[in-house]
Amino acid sequence: MEWLYVLMPIAGVKIFWPGLIILGVGVGIIGGFFGMGGAWMVTPGLNILGFPMAFAIGTDIAHMAGKSLISTMRHGKFGNVDYKLGMIMLVGTVVGFEAGAQMVMWLERIGSVEKVVRWIYIGLLAFIAWMVFHDVAKRRAKEKAALARGEKLTGLETGVEWHKTLHKIKIPPMVHLKEAGIYCSAWLPIFVSFFTGWLAGILGIGGGLIRMPALIYMIGCPTHVAVGTDLFEVAISGLYGAATYTWKGRTELVAAMIMLVGAAMGAQVGAVATKYIKGYGIRIAFGLAVIGCMLSILLKLVQPWLPAYKDLLNTASTVLVLGLVVAMSSYIFVRMVQGVKMELASKNRKS
């Protein structure tokens, strides 16, 4: 089965190339749908496939930048991108990203990058999964209360409403964000983008894993606008991140190109799917994907304590992360096809 493995010339490791294709196509669909580069799956996925963590980070950022740019153009046609908000956030993102990247170089020098990055991932994924499902539970409670009063919630009502508190901070300059329908202090998106940029630099992600929930819960964007705006931000920050990691010699361009070919096609599917799957359908699917990714990393982390089961745990981790990508992308694709069929049937009836 040697033909299923390809040597990565910069990293110096042999990689299961069908795994790269599965990651590329699947994460292209998932990333275009959720509004992020998908690095929250790809970085652990590349690490599980055999890349050292620093190379997994740099390689994923390079692949992510090109794919997110393609998705952004598609979302822009649907009016899902608030370019003004994205440009404001770019300031904090770039500064925060460089701070995080320098921290990774330091962790690599002291030999702690693998362990530290994985544990940060676990903590972050656990928090985000809790936040998403806590929001869904509160939203459902509000729906029941409104139904009891004979009322119906609007599509913009959320369960978690941290953004309403943050909008009370009126530090100049104040900005009006038309597509997002928000009026707030410019310092709010700048602060959020710095923090998410810092974590992105450490974890090797475009920031979408953190920024998309932050846009919804802290800034107050509608879900579909958060998706498109985040992809715009991921594309810009990803291009910068790819350049800085390539300069540091931690980018495996062969792997990035293999994934990008599939991701470019998948991103189109994911972006179109947001037209048919709205609001809390996106959030619930996102929460389930986060939990699956967290479990795959945990299987890697427990290996030192269960050496007798190392091969079994490694295989289970690989199967889980690739299976998650296949399952999520298949679900999104099927829902998109169903939505297109319903739309065409509706047009035929009207004609």
Description:
Helix content is 74%, strand content 5%. The chain is mostly helical and 351 residues long. It has one domain (2-350). The strands form 2 sheets. It has a two-stranded antiparallel sheet with strand order 1-2. A hairpin with a 4-residue loop joins strand 1 (5-8) and strand 2 (13-16). The N and C termini lie far apart (56 Å). The model has no long low-confidence stretch (mean pLDDT 77).
Concise description?
The chain has helices spanning 17-34, 39-49, 53-77, 83-109, 113-148, 162-166, 187-203, 208-219, 223-247, 253-273, 280-301, 310-350; strands spanning 5-8, 13-16, 174-177, 182-185.
Properties at a glance:
two-stranded antiparallel sheet, mainly alpha, 12 helices, 351 residues, globular, 4 strands
